[in-house]
Design brief:
Residues 311-358 are annotated as: Disordered. By secondary structure, this protein is of the alpha+beta class. The chain is built from ten helices and 14 strands. The strands form three sheets. Strands 1-2-3-4-5-6 form a six-stranded antiparallel β-sheet. Strands 13-10-7-8-9-14 form a six-stranded mixed β-sheet, sandwiched between helices. A two-stranded antiparallel sheet has the order 11-12.
Length: 358
Amino acid sequence: IENNALASRNLGDCSTMSPEACGKAKELSQRILDKGLPSVEDMRDKLAACQDDSCRKGIWTEYRQASDATINTLKQMALNGELSREELAFINHELGKELAVSGYRANDKIGRSEQSSWLNGGGGPLSGFFNTELRQKELENAGLSKADAAQYVKEEHRNLMLLETATGIIGAKANRTSINIVGKGATLPTGYAPKGNSVIGPKGSVYGNTGKVDASGNTIYSNNGGYYTFENGVKTKVQSPNSDSQIRQNYEKGKEFEQSTYDKFKVDKVESAREITVKTDSNTKIRVDMIGKDKEGNIICVECKSSSTAPLTTNQKKGFPELETKGGTVVGKGKPGFEEGSKIPPTKVDIIRPTSKD
């Protein structure tokens, strides 16, 4: 059983998420696909088109390789600051669960693999990465040397193992209401159940272990963008344990820059919108951060980059020049003024980066 890690280009109406979370899942899926990675639908279509076992074997191998490539790409995006820890956790848990449910409904070979992968490892394929490579990178960004950061992570892991051993978690016969966490009152509320290092809610929602604890020593879990602890049968919402990390600060700073840029951008526009997905003639999909129409009817497109060195994605490198020469079509739900199917004439995408004054 492999960890399914492919993004979807057709999530539709998510069955395990709120509409808001579903929108976030679609946005993150597109950012993954913008890296030139295949979607789970691509693999499913290829497998369905096979006429013999030799073809199926080849596509199955391609599927495994694509999953590995996606996992490695997600890791690199996090290490580069393109994905926040919260976004990566959302992909690892919530998006993975949605794909598992979709796979169950599809009921084909890939679909069954997606479902089985989730049921047998609901922590997600990136769970170990959070407290090793990503944690080390965060410490390096905070000013520690590479060697010191590596040693710090090693000590954190060793201390956690010692605490787990001391509380009888490793090798112990845990009862059904206890949970694999370090804390004063590790009792779950009614309807919640432990699964590995995670917690499963009454409706199947997964609370992923962040590897962090609060001041009382209770493990902090992430779910759908929020953070929670479980103590004495009570679930409590808490602040993000990563708010002081350099990556989080960079992410928030980038969002602030993007919002301030949009506030200026929309002032003289008849219509304007953010985060519109456009498909070019070559079927390349690109997300445009800002799009607007001035009084003369001219379309203006803007891409915000959070730093002077942040690169364009693979799809942006290909799609922006195509949009400039041939135009494109709005896909997805679109926004008022730029609904699905709207034609965008040949338009250059202006790339804006922070200046020293910003």
